[in-house]
Amino acid sequence: MTPSERFSRLFARRKHVFALLIALPTLFFAWQLRHLEIFTQFLDLLPRGHPFVETYTRYRDVFGNANTVVLAVVARDGDLYQTEVLRAVERATDLVDSSVVEPEVNRRPASDFVVPQGLVARGVHAVVNRIDRLLAPGVAEPGVTGVDHALVSSLTHLTTRDPRVEQDGMLVSPLLVEEMPTTPEQLDDLRARVRRNPAVFGVLVSTDERAALVRAGFIESRVDYGALFKHLQQTKATLERDYPVDVFITGQPVLFGWTYAFASELLLVFALTVVVSGVLLWLYFRRLYGILLPLSGAAVNVVWGLGFAAWLGINLDPLVLVVPMLITARAISHSVQFVERFYEEYEELGDKEEACIRSMSELLLPGTLAILTDALGLLTIAVAAIPVVRNLGFLCAFWAASIAITEMLLNRLLILYLPPPRERRHYVPRGIQSLLEVVARIVSDRRSATVVVALFALAAAGAFVASRRVALGESRPGSPLLYPESEFNTAAEHVAEHFFGLDDLLVFAESEPSGRVLAPDTFKLVESLQRTLELDPEVGGSLSLVDLQKQTSRTFHQNDPRWGIWMQTPAEIASLLYLLEAGAPVPGLLDPYRTPDGRNLAVRVFYADKRHATVTDAIERTRAFAESERLDGSLSIRLVEPPPGRFAWLRRWLSPVLPPREPELVVSVPDPDGGRRTLPAKAESRSGDDEAGSYRIVASFADAGLGAAAEVRQHGRYAPYELWVRNGATAAWKHADAGAFTRDGISLRLAAGSIGIQAASNEAVEASDRLALAVAFASTFLILLVSYRSALVGTLMIGSLGTAALTAMAVQAWLGIATDVNTLPVQVVGVGVGVDYAIYVVDRIRQEKRRGLPLAEALAHSVRTTGLAVTFTATTLVLGIAFWIPISSMRFSAEMSLLLCVLMAVNALGALLLVPSVLRLLPERWQRSV
Amino acid sequence: MNPSEIGRARRGRGLVARGLPAMLLALGLVAPAEAQIPADTARAELLPRIAAGTATPADVAALRDAFESQAALPGPVSAFEARRLMSDAVAAAASSGSDALLDAISAVLEVYAAEDLGEHRGFARDQLGQKVRCAASARGDAARLEHIARVLGDDLPESRTDGTVGDRQGLHARADLFRVAARGERVAVAGYLGALLVSSDGGTTWSAPATGTDEPLFDVALGPGDEIWAVGRDGVVLHSADAGARFERRPTPFRRHLFGVVAPAPGSALVAGDFGLQLRTDDSGARWTCLPRDADLILSAVRPAAKDAVFAGEFGTLERLQGLSLPGRRGVLEGVPEDVAIHDVWFREDGQVGLAVGIAGTLLRTEDGGATWAPPPGVRFDVDLYGVSGAGDAVVVAGDGGLVARSTDGGRSFARAEVPAIPAPLLGVAFASPTRAFVVGPRGLVLRSDDAGARFVPVHGPGAAR
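^ Those are the sequences you sent over. The predicted structure of the assembly is below.
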């Protein structure tokens, strides 16, 4: 008796114990479900520990965050300078700046604010809206928008000032729009003043003078994206009703809002999937068990998975709701294998219990293997630094592993408890049977098998070539989550038409001594950075304190543009800025540009979009500038990345598992002849502990004028480098400076703003993407190697899986779907989908061979029997989610279901055609090892 | 001292001196000036003796006392008055011809300039840097120039060998452009961050030679032959003898902004700048002489007028310098309002008909070589005008908000020229020939017209065909 059989018999004998063992956790997880939350946490989408994210979190409260809504008011006819249009801007500013969502607005479901276009969309929307009203009637209490009042800017906002010099030489900064202009002269005057104001013209007012922007930042911890979305949509409706303007709203929070508005649609589609799968299962099996077992198992499985998420407090992002679909698909797939095998055995044995034990013992090994491979593959997603992806990795790994219990054991239990099937003969759909007959003939014939293998090789090669073109990051302007003609993307397009650059890159000039950044050399550095980045055709403009100071200087000198220069001494700069601040009766006029201690200066560069090419280019240009134009102080300590070297590509590819490269430590002091002299510093790699935790010592050097000794430490892989010094040999170490290594020099720190965030996300996705795929394949291979003691089986399986993965990537490249933080989990989870097909087929072939069948017959028989179950599941799942493609309002869901369809279809073909064909063609000697 | 003079002195100075005390006064943080002013008596008694060169060391000590006690009085006006007294005294000493007197007053300033946190430090350094230097360079007193440079510690830095940020990052082609000079096929444009754009085919192709400086260049002039001059912030003067292939920095003893340059003869140039600076060189910039002025104001332009030169600047300044050599004779001003700043001026080849443009749509016309000026009837502009130039009876003016207007009757009437819509200031105007004109603006924009200014198309920068 094999171990599998022994376990199966034990299971049948002690079924009550096992039933209890399954029921208890199920109840526990079901109880946990009440904690389940579906929402988006913006910070979770950012790769934790990435230097840019560190920069972002460090400065977001000071210089604004990437969680920004942009509302554009566009005059329907003529230009912006009409009283009614300006009134609309004023009203829009008030509405966006408002902290409260009206109760009656909050009560309506988000889908109420969606205006669908097209017949299908309208139909779907009507149903979705009905569901929303039933399930989530909303709260009739005022909601909170979470707006950060300090981060609101617009033409009519309190902080938008118009500095000018009065006749007596006084600088005053009244509101730019003091009184609503009504006469043509007043309107012309406003136009002239706007044109002169670098913080307004091209930033808050479009250069074509037809549109004005209202920008607002939102506090991540306080914003309710659903309520905010409703509030903004209501704002848009009000403005367009009352004023002759068109309103377009875009920005990250609005995008989240849209995904919320479509969330119920996802539920609808989910329900439809269950119904369609049920119908298909009935068509195939024509037996109660055929429907009951897969679906009940799937339901329990979903309870386990979601309950686990709720228990751990993992919030479900509406966007990754596709992933649970996938896991459920696998659960159904395993169940179908079992049911099919059970009917097969039952037809032969005629005894329910015996058939159950036999089918169970035969499927225990391939089933467990398939599930284990799955779970491990999913666990590999957790290597990603992005919290939302990492959480998903853990969750899915558990979820997939739980299939072993919820499906494999529960199904058997149900059969043991339920009455035996009435009919002994098991139903086989005629069409599929004859189809499989053809397949069986193909794979058992050497010549046709050769053709199959050749075709697959050809397809794989083609797909490989095509898959190399898969873009990374966002490949289209707007959001790839939604269709180009969706309201959000059209709004983004309209806004981009008037304003060159909605996405911004923030770079910070930092100094250690306070007040140091308000100096002429820093201003020169900052301005030349702005001008250098503006050479990029993707850049629409930039804004920093330097522009404001230049404009003030010009204002003081009869408005002569030639006086638009940075001042020549820190004192002059400081007094100008003082005048600028003192001239306006609102505090914090300069806060978006510098910190009050004069240590940090923000440079904001506006980009046309955040496509991957744009982002990479922006970061590269900024890095190159920071390196070539650095402002070293009297003592400079810099860590210079070593040049990439010959195996850069390999290193890049493996970067997440390799130890980070040691940067070279360069310590320099000025030379009398104007150059710089490098002091000797020793690079090393030790580790230690201090109050901030454990750290790595990157380098150390002695006596550089800092103290007795100095070390450069790093707490954690992505943490910034820190300089620690001590004065005597036994004195305590002290943290000298964080991140920046110039003592009185200036360093440029990259990067925040939506471009910086996107760059960080791209880098993290790039690193995890390849690695997760590689680890998924490697772990699959290893598990198969260990369990079958055959490298051949492993290779075969990887070949089949690889072809499917490559085909999916080719489809992805063809459709222009880029890999980003949203698609990454689906792709990695998707790779494992269908690995079970090949495992079940190979296992069946081994069993048939062990029973003494010759190879060709074993192949044909396996295809006929197990192939049936494979075909059942594959078609059920493909058809079950294929209709997402036309229905879904979210492009993301549609595209992801298409990818999954491709993956499952190719995997099924691989299991049925490729695997047996290759086995058929192998030399005798090798076949024995299978 | 009447109130308008006080206002004038105040506005003429650096912006710190101008804005901050006025604000403090307005905010009630300081009390208005006392009626009794020690400077008045000192002015009446001491200045004539200093100007005559007969002042004694005791007079210098008295001057110092008067300055300090005046400056110690509460209120910004008294501080202005104190500084005005001292600066007049320096000017008087400089023009007196007495080295001993200049030495004595310089010594007082040097004491102030050396104080690290002294309240008169900035003022003293300015006076040393401008007035005393001017006097020294007018006399060819190299020893004194060296001495002042040492005291102020602002020797011109050696030109860096690794180029400038503008060169390294290639910023010149997209720099904001300020002024243009053109003659025949040769065009030169000066702009921000040390940008100088040069064309030798009438603006079809351009090159941006290394200028060795990142300071903004405020004006450019074409000299006879292949000479090009450019001037900018911080006393920068650049000279090229080979049509702009290579520019060399010419050291000037002044670290103020230079806003205008003309090059009337080989190797010679006339420069105008901040603090009323008027300079001349006749040896390609090796030595400079300057006209000591008593009024601190910003001169924004200097332009040729027949055989003379005309300076334009703040407070309705329009001065014709007879014969181009310093010190020249001041022209008579009539009809120029005192409260406008003139940004640019142009004279027809005959030196009689001229136009001046400035702040808030100011446009003045003369027909008598600059003796009397008046706005041409019926001509009205609402925006600041920054540039004017012409050839014969064709005139083009440029201004804020992308304004370009042309006249075909020597500036009696104007019509809008056909230009691309640019909601940004356009600064420089130049005529290369009777029909070809150039206008320059922000981000490397150069507009060219081949019909005497009726229609302009971009030939460089945004919108230019490549």
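Confidence is low (pLDDT under 50) at residues 1-19, 31-36, 156-161 of chain B. The CA atoms of residues 392 and 420 of chain B lie 25 Å apart.

Shout if you want it in another format.
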